[in-house]
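Summary of Year 1 activities. Much of the first year was spent building the evaluation harness for sequence design. The harness presents a backbone, in tokenized form, and records the residue chosen at every position. We chose the following record to illustrate the format because it has been used consistently in internal testing since the harness was completed.
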């Protein structure tokens, strides 16, 4: 019999990438998460965080977390289904449901658990779940766990969505989409999705992970952004982004939530979200609603960065949000750029194939980024982009930051491609 650990011993992709000096993952942060963090004892500007409203180190959010831990202890010591529900969980569920305009909500321990629990519960043996091909991995995982069939349509392609709806017109179905797509930064075409859903009699589930606190007049997400809140049947949102904690909400009608509460395995068989995390969510929800200026600043920063990148000739794809991808194209070059940017004082994330059609540097912005931060980021992106040949050389921006000695990079393109191909294919395959 073969050793099940054989695959582990043969896994060398990360070792090879580390040997090249470009391994970008699991960096050890030594400070609170803000627009700047400490890594390796030095301060670095962050452009790979989902801390959109800048609440992760907000004094009131921290205080809310501490107060909850003092009152309820460090753990609920069981699942929500059994002994792990307290009045604070129910308080934030009511607050969230009211905020997004739904009857009720249930709080899961993570956003990933929210999607896999709700989708696998709702999509039964003879049902169909229809997903955008670029939906988040947690949505795909939920579909794989469901007893029903998953069908997919091309990204934001409404003709292809209708084709799938016609093909499956006799089945009970639900359309599941991201509100804001986490890599591309573009927004689901919800107006057309709603029209098609009504035409063919199917339900709509929107993952507002990257749109809560970001889109809409009050920050409730994609539904509000398009004036279609009441047309979305199920709203999902994580607490790990704009809400500065961890956890995930599913909000819908009383009947739907009651069903999910009693059938979602990821809720029933997972320990409850700790009180300190729930206390942080409670306060963050208040600040989100009481300080709309944070969202205004976030969008001001977003416009500045998108215009800045485009003015220097960088491709920002189809982004319509504070997630702004920089198209690099070549996987090796994306890893190279991230390492060079890090050495220059900018913390970014490379995303390579097959997670995306073309390798990108994923950048995202916060309400707490200052103009000085943004100018620094633009200067370093211009410098590094020229060094790797992504844009032509020469002066296109007046630098407001001091230059550093460039970092030299050389390795075999084929060796690098071979080292990463299977790893990322398995990790990101959908």
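For this record, the design step produced the sequence shown next.
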């Amino acid at each position: 019999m073969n050793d099940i650990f054989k695959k582990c011993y043969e896994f060398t992709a990360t070792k090879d990438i580390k040997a090249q000096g470009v391994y970008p993952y699991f960096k050890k942060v030594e400070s609170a998460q803000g627009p700047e963090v400490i890594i390796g004892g030095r301060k670095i500007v962050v452009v790979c965080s989902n801390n959109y409203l800048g609440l992760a180190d907000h004094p009131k959010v921290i205080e809310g977390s501490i107060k909850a831990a003092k009152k309820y202890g460090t753990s609920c010591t069981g699942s929500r289904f059994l002994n792990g529900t307290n009045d604070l969980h129910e308080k934030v569920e009511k607050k969230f449901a009211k905020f997004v305009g739904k009857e009720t909500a249930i709080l899961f321990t993570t956003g990933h658990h929210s999607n896999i629990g709700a989708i696998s519960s709702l999509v039964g043996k003879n049902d169909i779940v229809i997903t955008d091909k670029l939906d988040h991995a947690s949505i795909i995982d939920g579909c794989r766990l469901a007893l029903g069939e998953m069908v997919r349509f091309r990204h934001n392609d409404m003709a292809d969505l209708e084709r799938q709806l016609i093909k499956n017109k006799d089945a009970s179905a639900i359309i599941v989409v991201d509100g804001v797509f986490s890599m591309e930064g573009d927004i689901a075409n919800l107006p057309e999705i709603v029209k098609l859903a009504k035409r063919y009699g199917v339900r709509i589930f929107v993952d507002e992970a990257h749109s809560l606190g970001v889109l809409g007049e009050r920050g409730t997400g994609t539904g509000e952004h398009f004036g279609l809140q009441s047309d979305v049947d199920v709203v999902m949102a994580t607490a790990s982004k704009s809400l500065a904690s961890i956890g995930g909400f599913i909000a819908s009608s009383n009947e739907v939530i009651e069903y999910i509460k009693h059938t979602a395995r990821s809720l029933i068989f997972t320990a409850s979200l700790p009180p300190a995390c729930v206390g942080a969510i409670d306060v963050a929800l208040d600040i989100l609603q009481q300080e709309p200026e944070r969202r205004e600043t976030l969008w001001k920063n977003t416009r500045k960065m998108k215009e800045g990148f485009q003015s220097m000739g960088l491709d920002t794809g189809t982004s319509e949000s504070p997630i702004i991808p920089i198209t690099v194209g070549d996987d090796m070059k994306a890893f190279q750029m991230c390492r060079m940017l890090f050495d220059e004082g900018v913390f970014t994330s490379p995303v390579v194939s097959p997670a995306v059609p073309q390798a990108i540097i994923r950048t995202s912005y916060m309400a707490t980024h200052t103009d000085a931060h943004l100018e620094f980021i633009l200067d370093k992106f211009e410098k590094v982009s020229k060094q790797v040949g992504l844009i032509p050389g020469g002066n296109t921006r007046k630098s407001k930051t001091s230059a550093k000695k460039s970092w030299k990079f050389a390795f075999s393109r084929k060796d690098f491609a071979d080292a990463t191909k299977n790893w990322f294919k398995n990790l990101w395959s959908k």
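Residues 292-311 form the longest helix (20 residues). Quantitative recovery figures across the full test set are reported in Table 2.
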